[in-house]
Amino acid sequence: MASSTVTLEKTTTIQTADAAVDRDRAAILHTPLLEGMKCGGVEAKRCCERKYELVSYDALPAFLKHNEFILDYYRSEWPIKQVLLSAFAVHNETINVWTHLIGFFVFLALTMCAATMVPVESSVSANLAISKSLLNSTSNPMILMMMSYGNGAAVAVQALRNASVESELAAAASYQVARWPFYAYLCGALFCLLMSSACHLLACHSEHASYVLLRLDYAGITGLIVTSFYPLVYYTFLCDPFFRTRYLGFITLFGAAAMAVSLMPVFEKPELRWARAGLFACMGMSGLVPIVHKMLVFGARPEAVLTTAYEMVMGAFYLAGVIVYAARVPERWMPGKFDLAGHSHQLFHVLVIAGAYAHYLAGLVYLSWRDVEGCPR
Ligand SMILES: [Zn+2]
């Protein structure tokens, strides 16, 4: 099986003091070292070269054996330089690395987009009262969003000519809605995507690297779930400190507990795949409580309906991702056929990005809602 895996080419010369490791590896890899020893002469120079080839599942050390349905194209205990360079080579983690690395840059662009297009707290008040007076004539939340963030300045100028909004503007000028829950979510998404990408790229380097990076990966998932609650809870219960602090406190504690559990070595065992999926699914499902609460209190408001729709879409993406991740389909049905492309973890990554984007859209609606309508004083 290993002889068929020559996608990634060698690069370096190693004057290795690591002869023991080399001996072990010789049983696994078809290296020029062995060939050189056989041939001698011209090949003598090649005795010191080592070719970093991809190996089969059977040749992996235990800490890299996560999915027995992916049979080939593994990197195993490569030096860090080769591991880093392998970001640009083809192996069974290439798409896993790039799906979340591209996702990271997409969310970085969305964050910068939000930072420049969404009014900051101090300038919210200018759009606030104007939008409020204009939006009284519409119940469409998308128009609401566009007015608040799209051409807010033009709307503001026009509306400023309308003397009828002056009193509202004066009242609104003293109000600023916090931005931190929205940016906390974006930071959570960025951290999750970056840690995931780093884990997929670097974990094959060594058992220690794998141990540390897997925990950072789990911490990233936990962070994404926890910070996903912040815009939902903060903006929905902006005027209800009792529920706001309790929901935020609950999910933060839940996340801290999940992170503590994920630090335990047993947590990464392949056979506990369903337990991991279950823990993260439970965290996500607990979001149903504030969502149902939101609909009971604000069910008549278009912003509440639209954000809930986005949250349902996000939940559907995440749920599909968790099921695919834990069930390991489609590779379970045809082992070896999806080694490079199409296996469950790649689908899981794409579904996570889709879900996170749906939640970003919900976050924009929340901001728009609370910029227009703060708390009565
Ligand atoms: Zn992953």
Automatic annotation (TrEMBL):
It holds the Pfam family HlyIII. Keywords: Membrane, Metal-binding, Transmembrane, Transmembrane helix, Zinc. GO terms for molecular function: metal ion binding; signaling receptor activity. Zn(2+) binds at residues 200, 345, 349. GO terms for cellular component: membrane. It is found in: Membrane. The keyword Protein transport does not apply. GO terms for biological process: response to hormone; response to sucrose. The chain crosses the membrane at residues 97-120, 141-160, 180-204, 216-235, 247-267, 274-292, 304-326, 347-369. It is a multi-pass membrane protein. Its main location: membrane. This is Uncharacterized protein. It comes from Zizania palustris.
